[in-house]
């Protein structure tokens, strides 16, 4: 008999894995929040001239026909965010290779939800800005993405007892709509495409794939050693993408998908505890969460507001309130409606433990659009433009509003699930795994 239940509890191993991810991401979210607050303080203080001067300072040099002289702000958005999107791609691949979402039926729900959470906000923004300039309409993709670090950090703080399926749902749809946003960047925000550089990039990409997949067999490289060789090769790929006209963060996603997730037989026989994907994540995630994303936020979130009067002037611009409506209402309605629609079309139902108010709460948190939204705003309007400044104010306002709404809903639901968790703990097996995670066959194995 086919199981038509979606967002079901999943495995105990998956529950533990998602909890570990939330713990890691929540720390990064706190650092990101601190960086954002510092950016706003510096941009609106007597040190604002020095702050913007530092952001616009150029570093690097052009050589061999390669453009590598960029402002610090561009180094942050083009370079450091490539590391962030490498982790985005790696997490998505892990979800589909070994996570509960390797089941196409289960994967369909968050994918459709993410698509709805991208399409409806974009539509809302366009409707608000129909009578605006073409440049203003060019920011339609700004409300597309969910900020993983902030959304997951809030979920980790207030949702410690929420079902793992809900947390997986948020994590996956956040990753998917980030990738949709990156695809939008590649298609709609590519200028002066240089095919030659893309053709050259095939060589290091192929070498990267060879080392990642066959490094142990051909070069006797352990996973711990492979990443040291992959790093410089990946940098070459990034440089070629940077000069190709396609946004350089695309390189991070492509390289992530070349990393094998599962350990091969030889690695397992050698009693190695971690495969290459785990090693790469272990090495890269602290650098991304503790440095790359916060530095990007520090140089990107800084906007001169000009007090309450300046804030009201910015937020009443069509670009600004279009972004707020799109992120707050568009995400809520788009994700919830898409989830409802896909369950109806498949003749499926939510897991009995999960209610639609939970989906609405998660959809509200998905309205926290920060990292990728700031990036798309810069690509749409240009760093330092009035439109870009209005967009930044709107992104920050919408993100705070979405966090408050989602946090209020899910904190209430968390109390409900906490009572359930306490009951399950009382019924736990001797192995420490709650009975609810253990099917009949597993019980026989454990006994």
From TrEMBL:
Under the heading Pfam families, the entry gives: Na_H_antiport_1
Q: Where in the cell is it found?
A: Cell inner membrane; Cell membrane
Entries under Gene3D superfamilies matching the protein? Na+/H+ antiporter like domain
What coarse category fits the chief subcellular location reported for this protein? membrane
Which reaction does this chain catalyze?
Na(+)(in) + 2 H(+)(out) = Na(+)(out) + 2 H(+)(in)
- Presence of the UniProt keyword ATP-binding in the record: no
What sections of the protein cross the membrane?
30-52, 72-90, 111-128, 140-162, 169-189, 195-211, 218-240, 246-265, 286-307, 319-342, 354-381, 393-410
Spell out the family assignment given in the record's similarity comment: Belongs to the NhaA Na(+)/H(+) (TC 2.A.33) antiporter family.
Q: What does this protein do?
A: Na(+)/H(+) antiporter that extrudes sodium in exchange for external protons.
Q: What protein name applies here?
A: Na(+)/H(+) antiporter NhaA
Give the species this sequence originates from: Rothia endophytica
Gene that specifies this protein: nhaA_2
């Amino acid at each position: 008999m086919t199981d038509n239940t979606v967002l079901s509890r999943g495995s105990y191993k998956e529950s533990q894995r998602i909890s570990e991810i939330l713990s890691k991401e929540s720390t990064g979210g706190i650092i990101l929040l601190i960086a954002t607050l510092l950016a706003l303080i510096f941009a609106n203080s007597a040190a604002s001239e020095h702050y913007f001067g530092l952001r616009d300072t150029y570093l690097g040099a052009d050589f061999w026909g390669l453009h590598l002289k960029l402002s610090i702000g561009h180094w942050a958005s083009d370079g450091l965010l490539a590391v962030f999107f490498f982790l985005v791609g790696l997490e998505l691949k892990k979800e589909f290779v070994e996570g509960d979402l390797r089941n196409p039926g289960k994967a369909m729900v968050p994918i459709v939800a993410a698509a709805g959470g991208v399409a409806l906000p974009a539509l809302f923004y366009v409707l608000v800005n129909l009578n605006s300039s073409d440049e203003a309409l060019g920011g339609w993709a700004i409300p597309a993405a969910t900020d993983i670090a902030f959304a997951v950090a809030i979920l980790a703080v207030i949702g410690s007892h929420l079902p793992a399926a809900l947390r997986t749902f948020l994590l996956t749809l956040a990753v998917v709509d980030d990738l949709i946003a990156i695809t939008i960047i590649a298609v709609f925000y590519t200028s002066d495409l240089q095919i030659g550089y893309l053709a050259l990039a095939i060589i290091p990409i192929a070498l990267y794939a060879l080392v990642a997949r066959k490094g142990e067999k051909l070069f006797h490289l352990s996973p711990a050693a492979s990443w040291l060789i992959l790093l410089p090769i990946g940098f070459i790929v990034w440089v070629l993408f940077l000069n190709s006209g396609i946004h350089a963060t695309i390189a991070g996603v492509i390289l992530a998908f070349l990393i094998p997730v599962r350990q091969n037989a030889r690695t397992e026989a050698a009693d190695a505890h971690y495969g290459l994907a785990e090693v790469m994540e272990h090495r890269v995630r602290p650098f991304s969460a503790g440095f790359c994303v916060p530095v990007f936020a520090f140089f990107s979130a800084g906007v001169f507001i000009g007090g309450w009067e300046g804030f009201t002037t910015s937020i009443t611009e069509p670009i600004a309130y279009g972004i707020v409506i799109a992120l707050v209402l568009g995400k809520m309605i788009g994700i919830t409606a898409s989830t409802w629609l896909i369950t109806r079309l498949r003749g499926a139902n939510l897991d009995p433990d999960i209610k639609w108010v939970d989906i609405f709460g998660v959809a509200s948190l998905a309205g926290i659009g920060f990292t990728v939204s700031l990036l798309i705003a810069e690509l749409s309007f240009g760093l330092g433009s009035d439109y870009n400044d209005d967009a930044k104010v709107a992104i920050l306002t919408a993100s705070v509003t979405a966090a408050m709404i989602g946090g209020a809903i899910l904190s209430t639901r968390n109390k409900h699930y906490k009572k359930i968790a306490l009951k399950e703990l009382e019924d736990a097996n001797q192995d420490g795994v709650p009975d609810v995670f253990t099917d009949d066959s597993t019980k026989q194995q454990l006994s």
